[in-house]
Write a structure and sequence with these properties.
This protein has 497 residues and is an all-alpha fold. The chain has 3 domains: 46-242, no CATH class; 246-455, no CATH class; 459-492. The chain is built from 18 helices and 2 strands. The protein has a two-stranded antiparallel sheet. α3 (62-81) packs across α7. It is globular. The two termini are 17 Å apart.
Length: 497
């Protein structure tokens, strides 16, 4: 079935002030919760890999623990940059599912695995080649460096599997299944624990055993997702070969999401770098505040993932009104959660710092910074939810530009904090500028209708095809007029899909 892509402009947009309270019931509540709750638990299970490694390697020795800290920081940074493989796949598959094109949805899952495997192999090769300079850049000392290199180099063997897991997770989320990724995440984390205990303490492999246990667990999780996709492929009879047209669409989505994520990570890394130059106490307080910020973001991401899956499916089914209503409802849920988090952090800001440090000076500064964390929670909540909604809608190019613009607003303010020798409170004021800039851009898009593109074709693919069709039509007209030689027009007359 071929689906037309059109933009629907509703006439009855409510104003922000008319947003209904989240305490009222909605027809989408059950579906949002069904998707969001397993997603939150699965997201919480993912850090168990690092926590398990930290607990076990910490018993081997301090230099080994330092090596793990350096290597895992590099790996987790890469993981954060390439999470687009999950997000982009979710929206694309959900749209096809909504359009009733189950075969193309399965085919998209196959292509996502191909893309993930290809990027994973390339990334692993780069990681092996750049391991030594990357560890040196992290400032690892002589005692720590060999252990960091050991863990990092072994971990590169699992990078293709890790990216396949991301793509497979996105595929199942697109099929409205967040329960299976939860089971896979928990199962692989438990497997990692058992295997690591055997390799590290049973076979006395040290930090190398810790790295190999993670690789084996990632390979197992990747195998589960490949099995699921293979089952759907057999049921629908689609090809398992790479499809260049589908890969181009996925690559376009991935590129835009990569730019968005890279701009965000660059901004947050710059914030830490500025805090480090303000002072040791300020850096410690910043780290504690940022970790709590990240934990709350993880909880809010469950609603964002529900937005990716639900909005994509509704738009694929040509239900623009339903997509709008579901998005509005998720914004209400997110705002309510953000307000609860804000009240909780504000109430506990005098207690929480003591859980992380015994230094009275760091505790005092952390309590001050938690005011910023609390005040920004409602802003963060709406930003994260709308991020998920627009990813589900396939509006990823706008997200890339919006995040780049927000980063452009943040960088000079953060730089001014450093140049003018201002305090860490001003740095968090710069972070507030970053989030408010994101909020303004996303709210402007949400209140409009440009993201409400319905039908089974991905918006990026639709725009590219429309542009190419216009170019082809013009060239055909010129040919008939005898103004363009065939030899010149030929290469430009191919309609790209």
């Amino acid at each position: 079935m071929r689906s037309r892509a059109i933009t629907v402009v509703p006439d009855d947009r409510p104003t922000v002030g008319a947003v209904r309270t989240a305490t009222r019931t909605s027809t989408y509540d059950r579906e949002i919760l069904r998707l969001a709750i397993p997603a939150v638990v699965a997201l919480a299970a993912e850090p168990l890999y690092v926590l398990t490694d930290t607990a076990i390697v910490g018993r081997i020795g301090t230099p080994q623990l330092g090596g793990l800290a350096v290597a895992s920081t590099l790996i987790l940074t890469g993981y954060a940059l390439f999470v687009f493989l999950a997000y982009g796949t979710t929206g694309t598959v959900a749209r096809l599912l909504g359009a009733g094109d189950v075969a193309r949805a399965a085919s998209q899952g196959v292509q996502a695995l191909w893309l993930a495997a290809g990027v994973g192999v390339a990334l692993a090769a780069v990681g092996l080649a750049a391991a030594e300079p990357a560890v040196a850049l992290m400032g690892a000392g002589e005692q720590v460096r060999p252990f960091a290199l050991t863990y990092l180099r072994i971990s590169m063997a699992g990078v293709p599997a890790l990216l396949v897991v991301l793509a497979g997770t996105g595929y199942l989320r697109g099929l409205q299944d967040t329960r299976t990724p939860l089971l896979v995440a928990v199962g692989s984390a438990l497997a990692n624990l058992v295997i690591e205990l055997v390799l590290v303490f049973g076979l006395d492999l040290g930090i190398a055993g810790s790295a190999w246990s993670t690789v084996v667990s990632q390979l197992g999780a990747a195998g589960v997702y490949v099995t699921f996709v293979a089952r759907h492929v057999r049921a629908t009879g689609v090809s398992v070969r790479p499809d260049l047209s589908a890969l181009r669409t996925l690559a376009g989505v991935s590129r835009d999401l990569f730019l968005r994520t890279a701009a965000l990570r660059m901004s947050l890394t710059l914030a830490t770098a500025v805090a480090a130059r303000i002072g040791v106490v300020e850096l410690g307080a910043h780290q504690i505040a940022f970790e709590l910020w990240s934990l709350l973001a993880l909880l809010l991401d469950g609603i964002a993932i529900a937005g990716q899956a639900l909005v994509g499916r509704l738009l694929g089914a040509s239900d623009a009104a339903g997509a709008r209503a579901a998005a509005d409802r998720m914004v209400q849920w997110g705002l309510a959660a953000g307000l609860v988090f804000a009240v909780g952090i504000a109430a506990l800001r005098g207690v929480l710092p003591a859980l992380f440090t015994g230094d009275a000076a760091v505790q005092a500064v952390t309590a001050f910074l938690l005011l910023f964390v609390a005040v920004l929670q409602p802003v963060n909540a709406v930003v994260f939810v709308l991020d998920g909604v627009l990813i589900g809608a396939g509006d990823v190019r706008y997200l890339a530009w919006a995040m780049t613009g927000a980063a452009a607003a943040f960088v000079p303010v953060a730089g001014a904090v450093l140049v003018l020798n201002l305090g860490v409170g001003w740095l968090w004021g710069a972070i507030a500028v970053l989030m408010l800039a994101r909020l303004a851009a996303l709210m402007a898009r949400w209140r409009g209708s440009a993201w409400l593109v319905v039908g089974g074709r991905h918006p990026l693919r639709t725009r590219t095809t429309a542009t190419s069709s216009r170019r082809t039509g013009l060239l055909a007209h010129l040919r008939l007029a005898g103004n363009v030689p065939w030899s010149v027009a030929g290469p430009w007359s191919r309609t790209r899909s």
